[in-house]
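Side project, low priority. Logging it here so it doesn't get lost.
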Amino acid sequence: MQVSTASQKELKRAYKEKRAVAGVFQINNHRNGKVFLGSSLNIEGPLNAHEFMLSSGSHRNCALQADYKSHGAKAFTFDVLGVVEIKDAPGFNISAELEVLENLWLEELNPVGDKGYNPNPKIRQA
């Protein structure tokens, strides 16, 4: 299937205008209740990367990868927990707003140790 030049230009324009979404996500193992918590100023990229790494057997978190392999993909969900609402206000700082959101979810889920796959509470990704 060939896309017309006008459609290609429209797709490129739409891609360039699309804003990155900052937020917090989780990878939830429904078999044992453990979660992996992550956040990013562009949540779509890391969330897709984690799913790809797990499905290809190359995730750098050994415990998460081992459970993914033993329980199977159907035991896991990849969920966006919250996104930063962009405000058109002087002094608005998206990174600071994301940090607040991160702290709320870290407190709520406590994904370190027996409850989760995070090695420490630093969850921000590129």
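Brief comment: The chain has a mean pLDDT of 91.
Revisit when time allows.
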